[in-house]
Specification:
alpha+beta, 435 residues, 2 domains
């Protein structure tokens, strides 16, 4: 059912218009960081930052919806707008208010949903910050809700900060050694891999044979619109869920999924990979709590962390399942997987020279563990032990990637195809990784 209008609807009009007109929304890196952190922290595929006027939900940033506006009568956020502090649905398909909502009964088949208000300093609710997923949840802790509320306040703080101050603050956060370390990294990679094959973004990747075929940020990662997916897709996903569930192990399910994707979408080589990363850092002991391990996302002194140059990043990757080739063909360096994993939506690859075994493809993350800051040396509580001024740490992160490669450089990895593949990997994630 549509949500009724808020009783303060008339008083919301001007603040909503004001915040909609802000140039701050053009600071994409800031808002994409919010989106990325929430997806990673909550293990969901959908996050949105939206404002609501009298008739519309205006979506400023999102994943999974692929829309700029939603009529308010079809908006789940409109229900959240009426709620005190938060609006939580563990399974939207079983709630009388949302069971027949087109975004629940149809694409993207939202089941889990949690939305919290975006509130101005004058207590006007102008919009909603929401996380959602096609899979229901059995529980959602108060701690997670409070963290989402805290993030909504951070979003409002950004919107309320003058643009010149915001830009100045962002520049100050750039570490002084970033440029030098970047140049060193590029020089080392050029010797190891050949010449650079992608420039003009925050990522530079090198092709193994130096042929010059480019890797690009996979910025076209989008999801299908409401009217672009057939009803049979949900049936196929249900069959796939049963198939993966019945094989009984992550390894067997990953192989089965890789085979299904390869055959159904005519992709020559598919593999699913686990990645673990440990990056060495150092911080003054005054800023780090007396704990051996903490959650990195909520650590408030990240700007005090300094990358250690006496130790290299440590990578570990392992193939969970693959189809269409053998291990001998899998000769990519860990750097490629690292770049794909740390980018927002992965990387895409195209080699028009056709001088490689595979000449087009994408590598994209479909699950990220919560990052942790871990002491290199555990706390020594023995009396008389001298405490060092600096604490050596590892930033530990990890998750799962899916890689898809074709021999033809002309294979169309279009947004609809990527969306369908991501939906299917989410089924694997739900059964064996986040359950």
């Amino acid at each position: 059912m549509p949500a009724p209008n808020a009783y303060v609807e008339s008083s919301r009009r001007k603040p909503v218009e004001h915040y909609l007109s802000l140039k701050t929304w053009e600071e994409r890196s800031i808002f994409r960081k919010f989106i990325g952190q929430l997806r990673k922290s909550y293990g969901v595929t959908g996050v949105s930052i939206s404002l609501l006027d009298k008739n519309r939900q205006i979506i400023k940033y999102q994943t999974l919806l692929d829309m700029l506006e939603i009529p308010r009568i079809a908006s789940i956020d409109a229900h959240a707008l009426l709620s005190h502090e938060y609006f939580l649905l563990l399974d939207a398909s079983k709630d009388w208010r949302t069971a027949h909502n087109p975004f629940v009964s149809g694409v993207p088949y939202i089941k889990f949903y949690c939305g919290v208000p975006l509130v101005t300093s004058k207590n006007d609710v102008i919009g909603i910050l929401a996380v959602y997923d096609p899979f229901p949840k059995h529980e959602f802790s108060e701690e997670k809700i409070n963290k989402l509320i805290a993030t909504s306040k951070e979003v409002m703080k950004v919107l309320d900060t003058p643009l010149d101050e915001l830009n100045s603050s962002n520049k100050q956060k750039v570490r002084g050694n970033d440029v030098a370390s970047r140049k060193t990294e590029l020089a080392e990679l050029a010797l190891k891999f050949g010449r650079a094959t992608s420039r003009g973004s925050s990522m530079t990747v090198f092709e193994k044979d130096g042929s010059g075929g480019p890797y690009f940020q996979n910025n076209n990662f989008r999801f299908t619109k409401l009217n672009q997916t057939k009803d049979t897709e949900s049936v196929n996903n249900k069959m796939l869920f049963d198939k993966l569930f019945n094989v009984g192990s992550l390894k067997n399910a990953a192989y089965s999924l890789a085979k299904t994707i390869s055959i159904n979408f005519k992709i020559n080589f598919v593999y699913i990979l686990e990645i673990r990363i440990a990056e060495p850092y150092q911080i003054d002991r005054l800023y780090f709590p007396q704990e051996n391990k903490i959650d990195a996302e909520s650590f408030k002194y990240t700007n005090k962390l300094v990358k250690r140059d006496d130790e290299d990043n440590d990578f570990m990757t392992r193939i969970i399942g693959m189809y269409g080739s053998s291990n001998s063909a899998l000769n990519f360096e860990n750097l490629i997987h690292y770049k794909a994993f740390t980018s927002e939506f992965g990387i895409s690859y195209k080699n028009t020279k056709e001088n490689s075994l595979y000449n087009s493809g994408i590598i994209m993350p479909f699950y990220r563990h919560n990052s942790k800051l871990v002491r290199k040396n555990k706390i020594n509580n023995n009396p008389g032990t001298k405490k060092p001024k600096k604490v050596n740490l590892y930033l530990r992160s990890g998750g799962y990637l899916i890689a898809l490669f074709n021999k033809s450089p002309n294979h169309d990895f279009n947004p609809d195809l990527v969306s369908k593949i991501f939906d299917k990997t989410s089924i694997l994630r739900r059964i064996y990784i986040t359950s």
